[in-house]
Amino acid sequence: MERARPRISVFPKCYFDQLCRGDMQYASWIRSAATLGAEGLEHYDGFIRGPAADVVSLMEDTGQTSSMLCFSPDFTHPDAAERSRQIERQKAAIDLAVTLGTRFCRTLSGQRHQGLTRRDGVARTVEGLYRSIEYAEKRNVVLCLENHYKDGTWQYPEFAQPEDIFLEILDRVDSRRLGVQYDPSNALVGGYDPIRFLEEVLPRVVTMHASDRYLTPGATIDELRHSDGTIGYSDKLRHGETGQGLIDYDAIFRILAGAQFSGWISVEDGMNGLEELERSIAFLKQKRSQYYA
Questions:
Q1: Residue 1 falls within a domain, yes or no?
Q2: Lower CB density within 10 Å: C or N end of the chain?
Q3: If 0-12 CB within 10 Å is exposed, 13-18 middle and 19+ buried, where does residue 226 land?
Q4: Do 289 and 6 contact (CB within 8 A), yes or no?
Q5: How many CB atoms lie within 10 A of CB 52?
Q6: Over its length of 293 residues, how does the chain's per-residue pLDDT go in tens digits?
């Protein structure tokens, strides 16, 4: 019997802003993705402007599989009515994931809004997750809580960016419908050890983002952790080719293989061209062959 192993997916970080603004048609990206050698395609709800059925049809025409839907709820918003709206948005994202043919939906805690205390942030996140999980159960979807830095459309960084806050939320939501989307680069940006963190959350890891991160000259990790209040990613942070930066992918694959992890690993880079994205996919496939032999 062939050993279960992870599958490699791709996410268009390189086109995130253009796709969100509608400057680039999502269909164009889907066609491009089919040429890169990945085994799945990760979606973001903000990319889909027309009927989801059109995306499904194009995926079928190009022979691609949906790996996951990437979604960013703001469960920590200071306004209660807005928090309720975010839960409804999460439910809609769960429905969209099902339509797209995947049972995995990335979720977050929310923004680190000004004046937000740890106690309130954790409580709001836990409530939002539990109310969303009730719906996910009905739709047979798993929410994947990512150790995140900042959504590309947000003003403030992720509330649960610090490792201890993320782990507290995870511990308080004991449900088979909430797993972890592990992102080693985000752990690095958050100021904690990606390998040790993986070992900590390994039993609940269901999906993974793969990239490498770089700081611009003179920038520091502490600057990235500061709530600067600017829309989008910090200009001090760069994505780069997977396997060429600071992340120890040998250690990661050794741990994943030892745990018989067989979920999706989604590449998010290509900031310097699709050739870079293609090389990242090939790199991950090589590591998979090496450690899942």
A1: no
A2: N
A3: exposed
A4: no
A5: 16
A6: 457 899 999 999 889 999 999 999 999 999 999 999 999 999 999 999 999 999 999 999 999 999 999 999 999 999 999 999 999 999 999 999 999 999 999 999 999 999 999 999 999 999 999 999 999 999 999 999 999 988 888 999 999 999 999 999 999 999 999 999 999 999 988 889 999 999 999 999 999 999 887 666 666 666 655 545 554 445 566 667 898 888 999 999 999 999 999 999 999 877 778 999 999 999 999 999 999 98
Which residues are within 8 A (CB) of 163 and not within 5 positions of it... i.e. 6 or more apart? 147, 187, 190, 191, 192, 197
Q: Is residue 112 part of a domain?
A: yes
In a domain, 2, yes or no: no
Beta-bridge mates of residue 267: 10, 210
* Domain count for the chain: 1
Structure tokens at 144: 């994947």
Residue 243 domain-assigned? yes
Containing structural domain, residue 55: 7-291
CATH number at residue 175: 3.20.20.150
